[in-house]
Amino acid sequence: MYTAVPEDQPRERALLVGVGRRADKSATLDEHLDELAQLADTAGAEEAGRLIQRRDRPDGATYIGKGKAEQLMAQAAELGCSLVIFDDDLGATQQKNLQRLAGDNIKVIDRSGLILDIFGRRARSREAKTQVELARLQYLLPRLTRQWTHLERQMGGIGTRGGMGEAQIEVDRRMIRRHIAHLQKELERIAAERRTQRSQRKSAYRVVLVGYTNAGKSTLMNALTGAGQLVEDRLFATLDSTTRKLDLPGSGSIILSDTVGFIRKLPHHLVASFRATLAEVTEADLLLNVLDASSPQVVEHDLTTRQVLRELGADKVPIITILNKIDALAESRAVNRLKEKFPGAILISARQRLRLEQVEQAILEAQAARFSHVELRVPSRKSGLLGQIYDSLDVHSRSYEEDVTVLSVSGPDEAIRAIQHRLAQDPAPGP
């Protein structure tokens, strides 16, 4: 498992590398490297410089070409960098060749390796640690060669943090695969526990916060429910999902959950490993897509979120777009542009608690479209249905008439129709 790293550990100097097609706009490439710099900062490194290489096709051996790679390593050494970070994923051969050019004093990692390092540092619960360890081993497996041994022994830090150790790296790959299999079984057990927990609250209307990392989901969660979530101006401040009850007038039970933030080029292994946690998303009745209205990349962030939702199979779940941090917008023209780009979106400031009532009203309207409040009359001879009613619906009150139990309930329309159908199959005789 990963080990915690003290916050006061000396910061590594990093050279950031971006590769774009010749047709790509320079501003777009700079924005991508700005985000990579944020990721590096979250991991405990500081940007010492950046290099952008334009290629229509990555070089199979070194990603950026041998000449450019040699220039890159010379620049890193001149800047006193101990770390070179590529904004794209490197193949095992590319990373091996680049590391050979870098020598013993500079580590070469890619975006996935950096994100995995951050997740390893941020993981707190056993579930999150298991998910991150599985993703890390799956990422590391094709890269297991003796070349990494000297890096862990001599250098440590980002990209090798919490590593497997010299002796363990040299063991047969089959041992790593066995450990991966063990972690997968552990996550299957956790997934089963989560399914049981969700089944116990299936009568409640389930709302899940999704969105790009650092968009303010935890702040919104706190503002709506008083959850006390950690709020930090860093990417991936929290990894574990949090679930709280949300009390709204006349709503019955609403369950609000916060999830790990998404990000551009989110490593596939991480999406797969966090599938148990993200099952909250696929089984939600409503998604709140929280976006940072003040970000120049807000449109790209929205596209990334929706792409991840498609990968999870959650793109059919009803979704409401929330544009957060409007207090950071200085011009009304910027607000109007956002309204044009995101028609129907709700503009809020979770930190300032501005327009939260619009979010609550939107939740109530979405709930009303799929949930109902009805009265059920259950004759004594059909009392066997009471258990199913309590399991599948919210029961608000219970009273008795002659041979009839009267229940005031709320819940999903399909669950209510199923109960009503069973009651109607053998209607109670008239007086």
Question: What does the average pLDDT come to?
Answer: 84
The rounded distance between the terminal residues' Cα atoms is: 69 Å
Total domain units = 3
Query: What is the molecular shape?
Result: elongated
Order of helices and strands: EHEHEHEHHHHHEHEEHHEHEHEHEHEEH
Count all strands and give the number. 13
Number of helices: 16
Beta-strand content bin: 15-25%
Rg of Cα set: 26 Å
Query: Structural class of the helix and strand makeup?
Result: alpha/beta
| Main beta sheet strand tally, sense and closure | 6 strands, mixed
Summarize the amount of helix as a percent range.
Answer: 40-55%
The CATH topology of the largest domain comes to Rossmann fold
CATH superfamily assignment of the largest domain? P-loop containing nucleotide triphosphate hydrolases
Give unreliable regions as ranges: 1-5, 146-154, 162-167
Report the CATH architecture of the largest domain.
Answer: 3-Layer(aba) Sandwich
Strand order within the widest sheet? Answer: 6-7-5-8-9-10
For the record, the CATH class of the largest domain is Alpha Beta
Short précis:
A 6-stranded mixed β-sheet has the order 6-7-5-8-9-10, sandwiched between helices. Strands 2-1-3-4 form a 4-stranded parallel β-sheet, with helices on both faces.
Features:
single chain, 431 residues, alpha/beta, Rossmann fold, 45% helix
Task: Write up what this structure looks like.
This protein has 431 residues and is α/β, with parallel strands linked by helices. It folds into 3 domains: 158 residues, GTPase HflX, N-terminal domain (Rossmann fold), CATH 3.40.50; 168 residues, Rossmann fold, CATH 3.40.50.300; 55 residues, no CATH class. The protein contains 16 helices and 13 strands. The strands form 3 sheets. It has a 6-stranded mixed β-sheet, sandwiched between helices. Helix 12 links the parallel strand 8 and strand 9. Helix 1 packs parallel to helix 4, helix 8 packs parallel to helix 11 and helix 15 runs antiparallel to helix 16. The longest helix is centred in the middle third of the chain and has 27 residues. The radius of gyration is 26 Å and the shape is elongated. The N and C termini lie far apart (69 Å). The N terminus is likely disordered.
